[in-house]
Amino acid sequence: MKYILANWKMHFTNHQAVTMLKRLDNVIKYSENVSVVLFPPFSALSSLKNQIDLLKINQKFKLGVQNIYYEDEGAFTGEISAAMVSDMADFAIIGHSERRIFFGEDDELIAKKMQAAIRHNITPVLCIGENASEHTPMHAKRIVLSQLSSGLANLTAEEVGQVMVAYEPVWAIGSGNFSDPLEVGKMIQDIRAAAADMYSSSAAESLRVLYGGSVEPDNAKAYLKLKGCDGLLVGGASLNYQKFAKIIEKADAISL
Ligand code: PGA
Q1: Mutate to test the pocket of ligand 1, among 67, 168, 240 (most ligand atoms within 8 A of CB)
Q2: Whose CA is nearest to atom 2 of ligand 1?
Q3: Which residues of the chain have pLDDT under 70?
């Protein structure tokens, strides 16, 4: 099974999001080998959920959110909890580099959010990755594995097996400078090996590891065929339904 995730970031009104869903529905064939997950802004989540139910396309499209807060409810103005979205979203992106950079999210907060997602039966997608100045083989591995261990810190081995990790080099996000697949393949193996050391080999095997950072139809295959790569987290290219559909086709062809 390959997972292809569309991170729409802060794009699309309600109406645009529903139009996008309908376009995707027209061009994408359902495949049991590919799980497609859309991450709209919170404002479009319930409209998309209603459309998906109405069109009976729940198998073809799953929904996720781009962030959650770790408390279930309370005086936290502007925040949205895992509890509030758990009847609409099956996935939650946690610790995306844009949240770390622009909203000051640190490892401790991210670890609490991971726990909150698991508590509400939402698959957390933990985003980890080195920035441009850390982009040397030694540095990158140290940074990535330290983000991994702090992100998973509050979870049991069994819970770690339910997690998704997206390896996204910060310098590759939205820049068009995509990563060398050989380096990505090595990092994916390092991530699994570290999870096996920290938890158990069965937790590490169940852990799903994705790549993200300037994924396009032309480079998707090179990552999807890497050993241990369970899928892709796509930003920019997911805003274009034709490009996104092509990436899904590549995933389907690989996993056959
Ligand atoms: P990008 O974004 O595909 O536009 O690089 C990926 C992400 O931020 O998850």
Answers
A1: 168
A2: 235
A3: 256
The C-alpha atoms of residue 144 and residue 240 are separated, in whole angstroms, by: 30
In the three-class reduction of DSSP (H, G, I as helix; E, B as strand; rest coil), residue 147 is classed as helix
- E strands in the chain: 2-7, 34-39, 61-65, 91-94, 123-128, 164-167, 208-212, 231-234
Annotated active-site residue 168? The verdict is yes
Is residue 152 within 8 Å of residue 195, measured between CB atoms? Answer: yes
Residue of the CA atom closest to atom 1 of ligand 1:
235
Alpha-carbon distance 136 to 162, whole Å? 30
| DSSP states along 76-95 | -TT--BHHHHTTT-SEEEES
**Cα–Cα distance, 9 to 252 (Å, whole number):** 25
How far does CA 64 lie from the centroid of its chain?
A: 9
Which residues, including other chains, have CB under 8 Å from residue 237's CB and lie 6 or more apart? 215, 216, 217, 243, 244, 247
pLDDT tens digits for range 60-101: 999 999 999 999 999 999 999 999 999 999 999 999 999 999
Q: Which residues contact 92 (CB under 8 A, 6 or more apart)?
A: 64, 65, 66, 67, 68, 82, 85, 113, 117, 122, 123, 124, 125
φ/ψ (deg, to 5) at 55: -85, 0
Under DSSP, the state recorded for 127 is E
Ligand 1 centre from 74 Cα, in Å? 32
